[in-house]
Amino acid sequence: MRKQVGIILAAFLYYSGLVGLARRWMQRKRQSLIILNYHRATGGDLRRHLLYLRRHYRIMHLEEALEELYDTRIEHKSTQDQRTMLTLTFDDGYHDNYTHAFQLACELHIPITIFLIPGYMDSGKPFWWLEGNRLASLTQVEKVKIQTYVYQLERSGEREKLAQTIDDHLRQAQSVAEREEFLSHLYKALMISMSTKVEDDVRPLTWEEAYEMEKSGWVSFGAHTINHPILANLTGTEEVKHEVSSCRAVLEQHLQHSIRSFAYPIGRIEHIGEETVQAVREAGYSWAVTTVNGVSTSQSDPYLLERLLGDVSRNWLVMAAEVSGIWKLFSPLWKNSIFGER
Fold first, then answer.
1. What class has domain 31-124+214-311?
2. Helix axes 131-138, 158-171, angle to 10 degrees
3. Where in the sequence of the chain do the CATH 3.20.20.370 domains occur?
4. Lowest mean pLDDT among 10-19, 53-62, 193-202, 278-287
5. b/e string for 107-135 if b means 16 or more Cβ within 10 A?
6. Which helix (DSSP H) or strand (DSSP E) does residue 25 occupy?
7. Distance of alpha carbon 56 from alpha carbon 16, whole angstroms
8. Looking at residue 73, what is its pLDDT?
9. Which of 22, 70, 19 is CA-nearest to residue 298?
10. How many DSSP H helices and E strands does the chain contain?
11. What is the DSSP string of 264-328?
């Protein structure tokens, strides 16, 4: 019900012309860049998203758009295409970025940027933030003790509690080694083989897939750390530097060109930390993106760039309203009402 009401409101904003009015207002303001933050490419209607965005925005690779955003030359700004610049970014490098997003990018001639995690590409392991639900659903044991609590998995709600405990523990890890040690213990306690197959859509990309995508010219790549830790939680400064700088080195070795953009894992300010921003600068990146909600301008800190959530499960009308900026005018009422979408 709540989601349906959200779509009705978005439809009103769109078909009344208010979305178009907001979009044109944004074009008249000082130059700005909308960076959309997707993860998965399946589970919704990415095609409809892309068709709408291609029609109304100037879609560019992230690096190209940022170069233009920060270029103050007047003649460079006088492009005939006055539509607001927009880039499509996909974090983590899910396999469906190859099977779905890449195929659509080639078909529709739309550039995309994917932030890669080399450690997962090398190992092929499932992403750690999916492990809570995955392991809790896979295990066949009747009970398991995690820390001081015994989960009776035949009882209603116990698997959900276990999944949440696993996820909480993984997010709080103070080093990658601690996180991996905990996962190793879980596999044994839950009697799950480390070689259990990961579903294709959620497995990490392979290097061969990355090479094919980049060769097309429609996909560019950025760095997303070696192992995707929550950087602010790491207690070792050297590990922060390693995750940031080694990621760039590995990607450049494989792709044979400079990597200039970085995406912070999880990406809220509390997940980043001041020393991480400094590590990104020292590693030689030109820009870094967060998951803080907003639109970037030439006045934005190039190492704390804001993005808008791009979720394929959202109806394209809701996406259109959000990207135009008009949706936020309704959000205070929306979030506090019984019809709130989220």
1. alpha beta
2. 140
3. 31-124+214-311
4. 193-202
5. eeebbbbbbbbbbbbeeebbbbeebbbbb
6. helix 18-28
7. 17
8. 63
9. 70
10. 17, 11
11. -SS-SHHHH-HHHHHHHHHTT-SEEEEEEES-EETTS-TTSEEEEE--TTS-HHHHHHHHHT-HH
Long-range own/partner contacts, residues 284-287 (CB < 8 A, 24 or more apart): 284/245, 284/248, 285/223, 285/248, 285/259, 285/260, 285/261, 286/63, 286/66, 286/260, 286/261, 287/62, 287/63, 287/66, 287/260, 287/261, 287/262
For residue 39, give Cα distances in angstroms to 97, 116, 159, 300.
8, 11, 25, 23
Task: Give first-to-last CA distance, the chain, whole Å.
Answer: 11
CA gap 137, 232 in Å, rounded: 30
Mean pLDDT for the stretch of residues 172-185: 96
Average pLDDT over residues 19-24: 93
Q: What is the pLDDT of residue 79?
A: 58
Amino acid type, 47: R
The Cα 89–Cα 289 span in angstroms is: 10
The pLDDT confidence band at residue 336, using thresholds 50, 70 and 90, is: low
β-bridge pairing 32-38 and 296-297: antiparallel
Cα 191 from Cα 174, distance rounded (Å): 25
Query: In which element (H, E) is residue 223 found?
Result: strand 219-223
- Residue with structure tokens 């080639």? 106
Higher pLDDT, 81 or 124: 124
Query: Residues 261-300: pLDDT tens digits?
Result: 999 999 999 999 889 999 999 999 999 999 999 999 999 9
Note the pLDDT tens digit of each residue in 79-93: 578 899 999 999 999
